[in-house]
Amino acid sequence: MSKYENEEGNQVFSKKTTIVIGLFLFVPIVFNYAFLSWRAPGVNGEVGDWIGFYANFIGVIGAVAIAIFQFKKQRELDQERDIEQNRSYVDIQDFRGPMMLVNVKTHENSRIISTEGYEYIMTESSPPMYKREKIPYLKISHYGTAPVITRCIISVDYTYQQNGVRKPQNEVYFLATIEQGVEIFLPLVPIGTDLNSSIDMVSLTFEYTSLKGERLKLVRKYNSTTETLFGENNKIIYTEELKTANWIYPNKIINSK
Predict the structure, then answer these.
(1) DSSP 8-class letter at 108
(2) CA 111 – CA 88 distance, rounded (Å)
(3) Which residues contact 149 (CB under 8 A, 6 or more apart)?
(4) CA–CA–CA angle 114, 141, 121 (5° rounding)
(5) What is the DSSP string of 163-206?
(6) Which string of DSSP letters, residue by residue, matches 52-103?
(7) Strand 184-187 relative to strand 165-179: parallel, antiparallel, unpaired?
(8) Is 13 exposed, middle or buried (0-12, 13-18, 19+ CB in 10 A)?
(9) How far out from the chain centre does Cα 187 lie?
(10) What domain of life (predicted)?
(11) Which residue, among 160, 159, 174, has the nearest Cα to 115 in the 3D structure?
(12) Alpha carbon distances (Å) from 114 to 100, 111, 124
């Protein structure tokens, strides 16, 4: 159940609770006018009796209202705790490797996103170049207790070099579902890019849904070197400073030279 569904349910619950409490407060007044505001043989009713009865009645209603409120708050806390404990986090790293990831050890279900630029350089390259030429990728994976994340969308902004000139590029891809342990490689090679030239990342946004239906958005700003994870209603879950590092995978890339 998503947080939006929980909020809608809580609103309905609050409306029903308000109506019930209102009826309980109104019933004694009707009872008073119907039975205690007139005299009949064998019927005795004084103002003090009515005030005492109503005070006791209000006390009971107050106790019930407090119990309902505490139950509602505890349920909300339990739901938030359950969402946090089942939250998945995304790991996105810069990765430079050979075409087709020749000699790169990956999970059997890991995959390369077949972008337009990647398909172009593959058709323009010969098999011997697959091992020799290295291109930039973004390597995407996730970790947490959930086995999958769903409705994954990535948007990337960067600049690349074409004929010695830097050009901006934006790419958006719908990745559907990503299983835990699987790595997704996004090649950053637009059509016309100069092979072996560097790219400069500007920003990226990765949106996904956790197993509990929580919609999350990871935003990375390279110019300010910050990474922020947003929850629903743009609630900030964390903000961290990016620390640039060069990675070497001695047990992941073998015989690549």
Answers:
(1) T
(2) 20
(3) 88, 90, 142, 177, 178, 208, 209, 210, 211
(4) 20
(5) TTEEEEEEEEEEEEEEETT--EEEE---TTPPTT---EEEEEEE
(6) HHHHHHHHHHHHHHHHHHHHHHHHHHHHHHHHHHT--EEEEEEEEEEGGGTT
(7) unpaired
(8) middle
(9) 24
(10) Bacteria
(11) 174
(12) 10, 9, 15
> Distance between CA 135 and CA 133 in Å, rounded?
7
Q: Which two tokens stand for residue 252?
A: 């992941």
Instruction: Specify the residue for token string 């629903």.
Output: 232
Q: What is the pLDDT along the chain (257 residues), one digit of tens a residue?
A: 444 445 555 555 567 666 766 666 666 666 555 555 555 444 455 556 656 666 677 777 778 778 888 888 888 888 888 888 889 999 999 888 898 888 888 888 899 999 999 999 888 888 888 888 889 999 999 998 889 999 999 999 999 998 889 999 999 999 999 999 999 999 999 988 887 788 999 999 999 999 889 999 999 999 888 999 999 899 999 999 876 565 555 656 555 44
Residue boundaries of the structural domains of the chain: 3-85, 89-241
> Residue 166, Cβ neighbours under 10 Å: how many?
11
- Residue type for 163, please? N
Residue with tokens 């990503």: 178
Q: How far apart are CA 13 and CA 47, in angstroms?
A: 36
d(CA 247, CA 257): 17
Using a cut of 0.90, tell me whether the model's pTM lies above it.
no
